Amino acid sequence: MTDISTSGAPARVTWGEVLAIREFRAMVLSDGLSVLGDQVARIAVALLVYSRTGSAFAASATYACSFLVWLVGGPVLSVYADRYPRRELMIACDVVRAPLVALLAVPHLPLAAIFVVLALVGVLSPPFESARSALLPDILAGDRYLVGNAITNTVAQTGQVLGFLLGGVLVATISTSGALVMDALTFAVSAWVLITMVSSRPAPVDPQGESRGVLSDTREGFSYVTREPHLRALLCMALLSAACLIVPEGLAVAVTAELDGGPLAVGVLTAAVPLGFVLGSAAVLRVQVERRLRLLPLLLVIGSAPLIATPFIHGLSMTTLLWIAAGLGSALQLIANAAFVQAVPSHLRGRAFGLAGTSIMAVQGLALLVAGLAAEHVGARRAVGSAGAAALLLVLFVTRMSYRAEAPAQGVPDFARRPQG
Question: What is the structure's pLDDT at 421?
Answer without folding.
Answer: 37
